[in-house]
Design a protein that fits this description.
There is one protein chain. The protein has about 375 residues and is of the alpha+beta class. A hairpin with a 4-residue loop joins strand 15 and strand 16. Strands 1, 2, 3, 4, 5, 8, 9 and 12 form an eight-stranded antiparallel beta sheet that branches. The chain has a two-stranded antiparallel ribbon with strand order 6-7. Strands 10-11 form a two-stranded antiparallel sheet. It has three domains: about 220 residues, no CATH class; about 100 residues, no CATH class; about 50 residues, no CATH class. The relative contact order is 0.11. The chain is globular.
C-alpha cells in the first residue's frame, strides 16, 4: 500500500465518513487467559467511546512505510483450504457476526502473540464505498468503483494507571487515586485485505508495529505464514556490514560519497513523485560503491559476501540505511553533525603528521547558543 491509500482508509475513522459496522474485543491477561469478550454494533456505542476507538484505529495505520507499516504478501502455499488466508477471509466475510469464527481468531491470536502483561485485541469490520477518480486524481463521489470490505486488528497493551493523589467529590478531600487498567495505544496490528491500487488485494496485508526496531517476526510467521522481514534498524546494520567489506578502502571520502549518492537518489525519487519507496538491490548498491571510489578488489569482496550478509534477492529501503536529516562524524571525544547537503564543508587533512578533520566556516558560529568570533 502507498501513503495515499493508507490515508484514504484513515479518513474513514470519523463520524462523518465512518464505514465501520461492527467492533469486537478480547481482553487477555498476562497468563494468556481470555478474561472477557464483546461484539457490538459500532455506531450504537456512546459517542465519547467511538472517538477513543477512532484514535486507536488511526494509530494502527500510522508511521512510515517500511518502518512502522510493512506490506506483506501472504504465502501462496497456504492459500489452500485450511491455509493462513482462509481464516482471514472467513473473518472478513463473516462481518464479525459469527461468534465461532471470532473465537477461533482470538484463540489463534493468544497462541501466537507474546506480550508481557495484559492486552486488548480489537477487531473492526468496515465496508468502504470506494469513490472513482478522474485522470487528475479528483474523487467523484457519485461514481463508486467497488465496495472495499476489510478487517482492521489493533493489539493494545493494557497498563495499570500511575499511582497519585486525586480529589474525591463525595468527601471533598484529596485522597490516594484509585488505580485502574488503561488501554494504551496499539503496539501491533494489521489491515486485511490490503488496499492496493485502491482495491482489495486478498493476497496481501498491511502490518503495523509501533516499535520499528522489533516487528515481532515470530508472530508474523506463525500468525500469517509470512516471511521474516528486516526491521529498519536491521537494514541499517546489514548495510553497515556490507560497507565494512571495503576493508582498507572504507575511507572517509568514500563513505561521504556513498552517503551523498544515496541521498541524491532519494531526492530524485521524490522529485519524480514515485509513490513506492526507493529500494536498493545488490546491483544498485554495488554501482553506488563503485561510483563512490571503492576499489575493484573491494567490490569483488562485496559480491562474494552480499548473499551471506544480506540474503538472496534482498532489497534495502534507501530511507532506512542513511540519515536524510544529518551527516554525522563521530570520534571517541567529539561528534560533528552536518547538513547532508553540505558535506563538502568537512574535509580530512594531515597537519604536522596528525590526521585532522577540517571544517570550513563561512557563516556565523555559535558556542552553546552564544555567537562567537573566529579569527
Amino acid at each position: 500500500m502507498l501513503n495515499s491509500e493508507i490515508l484514504e482508509i484513515k479518513k474513514q475513522f470519523n463520524h462523518e465518513n465512518c464505514s465501520i459496522t461492527k467492533v469486537s474485543g478480547c481482553y487477555v491477561d498476562g497468563e494468556k487467559t481470555i478474561k472477557s469478550k464483546f461484539t457490538e454494533t459500532f455506531l450504537c456505542l456512546p459517542e465519547e467511546e467511538t472517538f477513543k476507538y477512532f484514535d486507536i484505529f488511526k494509530k494502527t495505520l500510522s508511521g512510515s512505510i517500511g518502518k512502522n507499516l510493512i506490506n506483506m504478501e501472504l504465502p501462496t502455499a497456504s492459500e489452500v483450504i485450511g491455509g493462513t488466508p482462509e481464516y482471514l477471509m472467513q473473518l472478513r466475510d463473516s462481518e464479525l457476526k459469527d461468534e465461532t469464527i471470532i473465537d477461533e481468531f482470538y484463540e489463534r491470536m493468544v497462541q501466537h502473540y507474546e506480550h508481557v502483561g495484559n492486552y486488548l485485541v480489537l477487531l473492526i469490520y468496515a465496508a468502504y464505498d470506494v469513490p472513482g477518480k478522474t485522470k487528475d486524481k479528483m474523487q467523484m463521489e457519485d461514481a463508486s468503483e467497488e465496495i472495499y470490505r476489510y478487517i482492521l486488528c489493533s493489539i493494545c497493551p493494557v497498563k495499570l494507571s500511575k499511582p497519585g493523589l486525586s480529589y474525591h467529590d463525595d468527601s471533598n478531600m484529596i485522597h490516594k487515586r484509585i488505580q485502574d487498567w488503561v488501554v494504551d495505544v496499539p503496539s501491533n496490528g494489521f489491515l486485511f485485505p490490503a488496499f492496493n491500487d485502491r482495491s482489495a488485494d486478498i493476497h496481501s496485508l498491511l502490518y503495523y508495529s509501533k516499535n520499528s526496531e522489533d516487528i515481532n517476526n515470530d508472530f508474523v510467521k506463525n500468525m500469517f505464514g509470512c516471511k521474516s522481514q528486516m526491521a529498519a534498524g536491521e537494514q541499517k546494520e546489514v548495510f553497515q556490514q556490507l560497507i565494512e567489506t571495503l576493508g582498507e578502502g572504507c575511507e572517509y571520502e568514500t563513505i561521504k560519497n556513498i552517503h551523498e549518492k544515496i541521498n541524491n537518489l532519494i531526492k530524485e525519487h521524490k522529485t519524480r513523485e514515485i509513490p513506492e519507496p526507493l529500494l536498493l538491490y545488490k546491483t544498485e548498491i554495488k554501482n553506488i560503491l563503485s561510483d563512490s571510489g571503492a576499489k575493484e578488489e573491494s567490490l569483488v569482496e562485496f559480491e562474494q559476501k552480499f548473499e551471506k550478509i544480506a540474503g538472496e534477492d534482498t532489497s534495502l529501503m534507501a530511507n532506512n540505511i542513511v540519515n536524510t536529516r544529518t551527516f554525522e562524524v563521530k570520534t571517541p571525544d567529539i561528534v560533528i553533525k552536518v547538513n547532508p547537503d553540505r558535506t563538502d564543508l568537512v574535509q580530512t587533512k594531515t597537519i604536522d603528521s596528525r590526521k585532522c578533520l577540517i571544517i570550513e566556516i563561512n557563516d556565523k558560529v555559535e558556542v552553546n547558543g552564544i555567537s562567537v568570533t573566529v579569527n
